[in-house]
Amino acid sequence: MSKHDKFKGTGVALVTPFLKDGRIDFSGLKNVINHVVKGGVEYVVSLGTTGETPVLSKEEKEKIVRFTIETVNKRISVVVGVGGNSTQEVMYMLKSFDLRGVDAVLSVSPYYNKPNQRGLIQHYKAIADACALPMIIYNVPGRTGSNISAETTLQLAEEVKNIIAVKEASGNLDQVMKIIKYKPKDFLVISGDDLITLPIIASGGDGVISVIANAFPKEFSEMVRQALAGNYSKAQNLHYKVDEFTRLIFADGNPAGVKCLLEKMKICSSYLRLPLVKVNSQLEKSIAEELKKF
Fold it and tell me: Domain total for the chain?
């Protein structure tokens, strides 16, 4: 298996379960990891957006990554999120963080300071040079405040050897299709939006890094596999089986929605760290009702 093939299919942006007192619930995290591995996903992503990474200390991040690697136990691949709005700080983290057992790094574009496209290119070139692992660019303008253009992604794909993929969460299908059309052959285009994963794959995309797959790894990863195989009738059936859940879990913020669902499924608790809070009572009721129907 090539370094690229490991990341085709379904990756799961793992939640970070917490106890009522705010400590990390490693027992809950173990439940989630085993649930998604048994569900047939291709890899997990630790320390992503869904993992509430901004509220974790450096020590907590290191413990989560080591625990995740040990729990996965080489059954599937492990990706770790390492990003930030300071290029020098990201480079330092990549050089100092214990990445043994990690298969690739997912790095979100710099947030808050809103660099232009030239700045984004220089940022990714610098951090890729500091990283010995394959790197996945993460474009999520709704959270970062700036978009990585198709032209910038394509330039990085051509010029930086260890940048092997982009997680595209811009929601802009025109932009995604432009990347797919002009990308190098082995460069992967990964959906960052569960609801539009099927059309992205139909356009030539390579899979997804999913939130809903925390709860429904079997159904969602099979949908992705069927779509990648060109079996769109089967893929559509699976897509529509979980699409309402996907809408519900984002209705009052991520990861509050998926944590609520996981609690209803008795996999882990729904506690979050401030400034995030649990979903509102009406949405909690809707999620419970949808789960009964499922």
Answer: 1
Peptide bond before 110: cis, by omega within 30 degrees of 0?
Answer: no
Let me know if residue 246 belongs to a domain.
no
Decide if pLDDT at 242 tops 90: yes
Residue 210 lies in a domain: yes
Chain segment 197-233, per-residue pLDDT in tens: 999 999 999 999 999 999 999 999 999 999 999 999 9
pLDDT band at 2 (very low <50, low <70, confident <90, very high): low
| Position 208 in a domain | yes
Which are the contacts of 118, defined by CB distance < 8 A and separation ≥ 6?
Answer: none
Which CATH number does the domain housing residue 160 bear?
A: 3.20.20.70
Positions marked active-site: 138, 167
The rounded radius of gyration (Å) of the Cα atoms in the chain is: 18
Domain coverage including residue 207 = 5-227
- Mean residue pLDDT of the chain comes to 97
Q: Is 15 within the bounds of a domain?
A: yes
Q: For residue 72, what are the CA distances in angstroms to 41, 75, 101, 241, 266?
A: 12, 6, 10, 27, 20
